[in-house]
Amino acid sequence: MVATRGLFFVSLFALALGKPMGRNMKVHESREGIPDGFSLRGAALPDQTLKLRLALVQSNFPELERKLMDVSTPSSANYGKHLSKAEVQQLVAPTQESVNIVNAWLKENDIDAKTISATGDWLSFEVPVSKANDLFDADFSVYTHDASGMEAVRTLSYSIPAELQGHLDLVHPTVTFPNPKSHLPVFSAPIKPEAQNLTSRAVPSSCKSTITPACLQAIYNIPTTKATESSNKLAVTGFIEQFANKADLKTFLTKYRTDISSSTTFTLQTLDGGSNSQTGSQAGVEANLDIQYTVGVATGVPTVFISVGEDFQDGDLEGFLDVVNFLLDEDTPPYVMTTSYGQNENTISRNLANNLCNAYAQLGARGVSILFASGDGGVSGSQSASCSKFVPTFPSGCPFMTSVGATQGVSPETAASFSSGGFSNYFGIPDYQADAVAGYLSALGSTNSGKYNASGRGFPDIATQGVNFEVVVDGQLGGVEGTSCSSPTLASIISLLNDRLIAAGKSPLGFLNPFIYSTGASALNDITSGSNPGCNTNGFPAKAGWDPVTGLGTPDFNKLLTAVGL
């Protein structure tokens, strides 16, 4: 069988080189119509240059997924035995057959593409609109985002030669539209916080109205002792020119972490032309929030701010794909990555969503915990919007990352009404949460029937506080709310757990979900009140066990220590 397959491949490749591929085109991706909020302006200029990316089919992703679950499931004998960079690359690199066939097609069409990923699964090239239309049987046109005026050249469908099926995964950007509505936290007017007892483990009374590091430490039993392991890094990603200001961090630490040096800071990595201006007026609410509540809560954990510039190469993903490929190329990526940005799942193509999700699986297999804020629109998406059916967010629907929702209040905590949650339309229910989702749907009954995909991956997975966080921006104290507060909080807790694990000679937690849906579930505080309204409904109600508002609940550091065997 092997010899026969090899002969067939040689013959096919020779055929591909010997004559042009026929015009037997097959529709590869399409969308039903123009996305809400966009209008067609007209045909794109034929000589306008398009920057396109090709993703080749990865060789053995099913085996990577199997190994990811094997090293991430506490009951497995291989739990914690994460894969090396080389082992991951070997599983996802495209086959030589795919490389040869795609390159033959490119050569035939006089296209000079460059490889832009370590495994060779991503290629990029530039062509005029007229040639792109011909290559892909497409109709690239100019679309305008009505609210912002942003213009984008896209097509509603494209095709590829039949010979490339099974070898070429997607062409981008094509049917994926931009996401100009940024997912950022709400910044309220300046506030004057009450005095707090920063050393007592009792929850300060002021935490009922404002959240500080001391509140989080008290609510979730987070230690104040300094982490010891220098290899244990925490990455905070920054996009859309959101800059983390060191002077504001110093002010924040001086006010809220009097027990540590106010000079404690973060390191910087940049890509896609990123920078981190220290001009006070350019301090970003999101970037400052994320940095102040990682440096300020994950005591002593080395924190890196990854600033992604506006020259991102991944089209409409605002640098999401670029940053994950950047980390995959590192020999020792940070053990935790938190991102407080996102978009609605329906804004991107299924193929692109799947490709990015698979990249998170690669990082997870190497021992990285990937956390994303679930969004702030309840069941209406990443931000509140009008809708008839519930809108899942991305990448929260991806089964290979951990989605973080929001709570509010103290004793008891309740779901924050804006906490995005629901069920993916792109990804099915993963095994690790099948029982939890089934239990919730049974209890939910017919409520919201027809408005969501009952067979989809449920999110969020977990939650933390997300309302009335005190931050410093350009020297000014203000209140912030959103799941943007929740993800860096959880990232800090996981990083402190990793510090204890590494100090004990154990592996970091890596991909969290198989753990938190099994042995880790008992270490979480179940949230059973509140809901996430949207789409002219009350959304989903929080219930006992997992729910699509707060996930499995909120963390207790001491109980998590026990759950991880410390």
UniProtKB/TrEMBL annotation:
Signal sequence, renumbered to the chain: 1-18
Cofactor detail note: Binds 1 Ca(2+) ion per subunit.
Domain Peptidase S53, residue spans: 210-566
Keywords: Calcium, Glycoprotein, Hydrolase, Metal-binding, Protease, Secreted, Serine protease, Signal, Virulence, Zymogen
EC number: 3.4.14.10
Molecular functions per Gene Ontology: metal ion binding; serine-type endopeptidase activity; tripeptidyl-peptidase activity
Any one Gene Ontology cellular component term annotated for this protein: extracellular region
A Pfam family: Pro-kuma_activ
Catalysis performed (reactions): Release of an N-terminal tripeptide from a polypeptide
GO biological-process terms attached to the record: proteolysis
Residues of the active site: E286 (charge relay system), D290 (charge relay system), S484 (charge relay system)
Domain of life the protein comes from: Eukaryota
SMART domains xrefs: Pro-kuma_activ
Main enzyme class: hydrolase
Cofactor(s), by name: Ca(2+)
Chain residues that bind Ca(2+): D526, I527, G545, D547
Compartments where located: Secreted, Extracellular space
Function: Secreted tripeptidyl-peptidase which degrades proteins at acidic pHs and is involved in virulence.
Name of this chain's protein: tripeptidyl-peptidase II
Organism of origin: Lentinus tigrinus ALCF2SS1-6
